[in-house]
Amino acid sequence: MSNIYDRIFKEDIEPIIEVFATEVLHVNMGRTEEIKDKIQATWQREGDYLKKLIFDDPSKNCVLHIEFHVKDEDLSKWMLLTYGMIYHQFGVPVRQFVIYVGRKKKPRMPSGTQHDDCSHQFSIINLREFSHKMFLNSHIPELVVLAVLADFEGEPSEKIIREILGKLHQLRGDTANLGKYVQQLEILSKLRNLQPLTSKIITDMPFVYDLETDIRYKQGRRKGIQEGRQEGRQEGRKEGLEKAKIEFIEKLLLQGGFTVHQIVSLTGTTEALVKQIQEELEKQKSPAPTKNRKNGK
User: Fold this and answer.
1) Which of 34-38, 159-163, 173-177 has the highest mean pLDDT?
2) Which residues touch 293 (CB under 8 Å, ≥6 apart)?
3) What residue ranges do the domains of the chain occupy?
4) DSSP class of residue 190?
């Protein structure tokens, strides 16, 4: 299940990194440089962000290593190993951060290792310790989504989730990308045991998953208008909306990482329909059976 969260963080880190580094990590980003070598291919894990930071003053150059982590576990050996490999390759300091996004309010994971002849430290950042307002007030949707992992400061969960969805709608309007961020919010809310509530609110706020913006709906609607009849308009709308919903469900199933329950919550459809589409996709993947040929026929 953690790979679902990894994909979100890996996908969202680039748009937010400058603001996130400044506001959360208190790191001056300078100019970033891709690390394209065996370290990235061999050692970097799904949740890692690894970039070389270049400054006008070369003495300030370093490598930024960020790991988003769900589990409260000891990462000290892994972080020490990564530091050693990076330092050996580039000869510059490595600034390491573990961003804890798990369910525990106060993780117990150690922030380093200490032996007789070896000492190594890294920073652990717990998103629960940051106000949700810092993320919610951002103009970057990827940061707004992270508000669900921050400190609600005593505010009702329902209120915060609705504010997040409202801000996403304000930033993305009726664009196709709105659906992407709502998916992410629904998935990340599980880390705060808020997925059932989030799914319900998503269902209650129709603009969030307004599939009427889908091109197939627009085509159906235009077809109905051209027919010049109310019946035609309604039929076109229904046809386009159903096609959009089915294709969206197929996309989620093919992408993987989503349960039937999650897809039902995201699309507002029935479990029976999702399972039916799932079975049809499985049939398409399976090779067609070959008939036994007898007597050369």
Assistant:
1) 159-163
2) none
3) 1-129, 210-285
4) G
* Length of the chain, in residues: 297
Could you tell me which residues are beta bridge partners of residue 69?
100
251-266 pLDDT per residue, tens: 778 877 677 877 776 6
Distance (Å, whole) CA 293 – CA 15: 59
Per DSSP bridges, beta strands 118-121 and 94-100 are unpaired
Which string of DSSP letters, residue by residue, matches 173-188? TTSTHHHHHHHHHHHH
pLDDT at position 53 is 94
pTM above 0.85, yes or no: no
CA distance 227 to 220: 11
Reference 145, options 160, 129, 157; nearest CA is 160
Structure tokens at 77: 């050996």
Q: Which residues touch 238 (CB under 8 Å, ≥6 apart)?
A: 220
The residue type of 221 is R
What does the pLDDT look like over 44-85, one tens digit per residue? 555 578 899 999 999 999 999 999 999 999 999 999 988 998
Residue 224 pairs with which residues in a beta bridge? none
CA-CA distance, 219 to 226, in Å (whole number)? 11
Residue 123, H or E segment: strand 123-126
